[in-house]
Design brief:
single chain; 204 residues; alpha+beta; seven-stranded antiparallel sheet; 7 helices; 29% helix
């Protein structure tokens, strides 16, 4: 479903310019046209049931959004299969790879593992300010791992938004607390979820 019965979800047809600009990114980063383009539901992909490539699917969406913001009209050619050829090692997403002219890196080896929850939150907010295409947010804990495309942060409501590639998650931009990881493991607050973050991938 593209639409939610919960008014905090951001269905593709209801996301306005203020959602992308607001507190999340610099106002001059996105134009109205690019904002509308980022609401195109064809950008977003779901991983099939039983598939464990959440990092790959999240990366495809990040690369598509980056291409759109760069004015690339061929962004639909960025597919799971084409990205997998250069980004997947067989056991997981590579920490660094190049797809066309987009260089993707991870903070796995640079993010201080001893950061407090507030420090991690600050890191994520700053990353989203620098990367309006979003970042691939990776968490591990509760004997499980998952990745989503983190798209935005709203300072007024203190809420991170994401698109979750899991089939059981809504087909919409949703608060990260509505992601499959948070709901499956009954995570009660955003701070606990943020504290579980290991690292993220981004377009350099």
């Amino acid at each position: 479903m593209l639409f939610s019965s919960t008014n905090t979800w951001k269905s593709f047809d209801s996301i306005g310019e203020e959602y992308f600009v607001g507190s999340s990114v610099q106002a001059d980063t996105l134009t109205k046209k690019s904002t509308e383009e980022l609401t195109n539901k064809d950008i977003y992909v779901k991983q099939p049931e039983g598939n464990v490539q959440c990092t790959l699917y999240s990366t495809v969406m990040m690369l598509r959004r980056d291409a759109i913001l760069d004015g690339d009209t061929n962004w639909k050619e960025i597919t799971v299969d084409s990205v997998e050829q250069v980004a997947w090692s067989g056991s997981g997403l590579l920490y660094e790879f190049t797809y066309d002219d987009m260089n993707v890196k991870t903070t796995a080896n640079t993010l201080d593992p001893n950061l407090s929850t507030e420090e991690k939150k600050k890191v994520l907010i700053e990353a989203l300010q620098q990367h309006p295409e979003g970042i691939v947010f990776y968490v591990a804990g509760y004997n499980a791992m998952h990745a989503v495309l983190l798209t935005s942060y709203d300072a007024d409501s203190d809420t991170f938004y994401c698109y979750d590639p899991a089939m059981c998650a809504p087909d919409a931009i949703i608060p990260i607390m509505d992601s499959s990881y948070a709901t499956t493991y009954h995570i009660e607050d955003m701070d606990t979820l943020i504290a579980s973050m290991n690292y993220y991938w981004y377009v350099e």
